[in-house]
Amino acid sequence: MKTAITEMFGIQHPIIQGGMHYVGFAEMAAAVSNAGGLGIITGLTQGTPEKLANEIARCKDMTDKPFGVNLTILPTLTPPDYPGLLKAVIDGGVKVVETAGRNPVELLPPLKDAGIKVIHKCTSVRHSLKAQEIGCDAVSVDGFECGGHPGEDDVPNFILLPRAADELEIPFVSSGGMADGRSLVASLAMGAAGMNMGTRFIATKEAPVHENVKQAIIAASELDTRLVMRPLRNTERVLNNAAVERLIQKEKDLGDAITIQDILPEVAGVYPKIMQEGAMDEGAWSCGMVAGLIHDIPACEELITRIMAEAEAIIARLGALSKA
Ligand SMILES: Cc1cc2nc3c(=O)[nH]c(=O)nc-3n(C[C@H](O)[C@H](O)[C@H](O)COP(=O)(O)O)c2cc1C
C-alpha cells in the first residue's frame, strides 16, 4: 500500500510504532522496521547521547530498513542533554525523528539541515497546525483514546482525525486506539495516510518487556484504563492497578492543592520495575483503551502482515458494496 507516509519515510506499510518509554529499544524498533513498518527508538529511555548512539548502532545491526528516534520534550527540572541527543541521532544516520510533548521548534533547524524527516505527535488540531507552520514534515494525531498523554481537550479520533484532515496540508497518521485492519481503513477513510500504534506493539513477541506486561494488556478490557495527573495538567492514560488507585485517591483527597511531589512514589522511576522486572503494581504505566482489542502476542511480522491483509479485504468489501 502506497500513501504519502510510506513515500515520505521509505517504508512498505503505513504503520508506525510510536516511541514508548522502556519499550522502544533497538529490538522493538528493528522488529517493526523489518516487518515493513517504521520502528522507533525512544531517545529519553537511553538518557545520554552515548547510550543513544549505541542503541542506534545496535538497531542498525538488526535492520537495513529505515527506523526513527523519538525525542519527547518534557517540562523537567533537570532537562536531558537535547543537543547531545540530537547529535547522536544525526551522526547515527537516522532518517526520521518523532517529536512529542512541547513545541519542537528548537530541534528543527539541525534536523532539517541533516535531511531528517520530522513527525510531531499532537493531541489537537491547533497543535497540528502549529507543527505544520514551524516546518514539521508530518504529524501523528493522537486521540483521547491513546495510551500515554492525550492532552487536556478529550477529543476522540472519530472527531479529531476528520478535523485534522479538514485543516492540515501536510500528511498525518492516526494515533490512539489503533489495533488492526479496521483501524487502518478507518484512519485512511478519515483522511490519515497511515496509523501509529503504541499499546498494540507492546503485546508482540519481540517487545523487550517482561511477560507480565504483555499478559496484563491481554487481560485488560477497554474499561481498565484510568486518567491520572489531570489536576497537574499532565494527564496520562494508564492501566489501572493498586498504585493507580492510590494515586487517584490522593488526587481526590488533595484536590487542586496536589503537587507532583505528592505522587512521586506512584510515577517517578517506576518504568524499569514494571517493564523489565514485571512488578505490575509498582506504579502508573501508559496503556491505551485499545487493550480491549488486543487478544494475542504475535510476532511483529505476523501482526503487520495480518493488519495489511485485513485492510485489503475490507477495502475490497467496501468497493464491492459501492458497486452493488
Ligand atoms: C508504555 C507506553 C509508553 C509511552 N511512552 C511514550 C514516550 O516516551 N514518548 C512519546 O512520545 N509517547 C509515548 N507513548 C505514546 C505512544 O507513542 C503512542 O502515541 C500511543 O501509545 C498511541 O496510543 P495507543 O496506545 O492507543 O496505540 C507511550 C505509550 C505507551 C503505551
Question: Notable features of this structure?
Answer:
single chain; 324 residues; alpha/beta; TIM Barrel; 2 domains; eight-stranded parallel beta sheet; two-stranded antiparallel ribbon; 10 strands; binds flavin mononucleotide
Main beta sheet strand tally, sense and closure:
8 strands, parallel
**Count of discrete alpha- or pi-helical segments spanning 4 or more residues:** 15
Please state the overall shape, judged from the principal axes of the Cα atoms.
globular
How far is the first residue's CA from the last residue's CA?
Answer: 25 Å
Attached small molecules: flavin mononucleotide
Question: Can you tell me the CATH architecture of the largest domain?
Answer: Alpha-Beta Barrel
Q: What string gives the helices and strands in order?
A: HEHEHHEHEHEHEHEHEHHEEHHHH
List how many beta strands DSSP finds: 10
Helix proportion of residues, in percent? 40-55%
Based on CA atoms alone, the radius of gyration comes out at 19 Å
Describe the structure.
There is one protein chain. The protein has helices spanning 4-9, 26-34, 43-46, 49-62, 82-91, 108-113, 125-134, 157-167, 181-189, 199-202, 211-219, 242-254, 264-267, 271-276, 300-323, and strands spanning 15-17, 39-42, 67-73, 96-101, 117-122, 138-142, 172-175, 195-197, 225-228, 236-239. The radius of gyration is 19 Å and the shape is globular. It has 2 domains: 4-203, TIM Barrel; 211-289, no CATH class. The protein contains 15 helices and 10 strands. The strands form 2 sheets. An 8-stranded parallel β-sheet has the order 1-8-7-6-5-4-3-2. By secondary structure, the protein is of the alpha/beta class. 43% of the residues lie in helices and 14% in strands. It binds flavin mononucleotide. Residues 18-21, 23, 42, 70, 72, 100, 121, 142, 145-148, 175-178, 196-200, 285-288, 290 line the site of flavin mononucleotide (FMN).
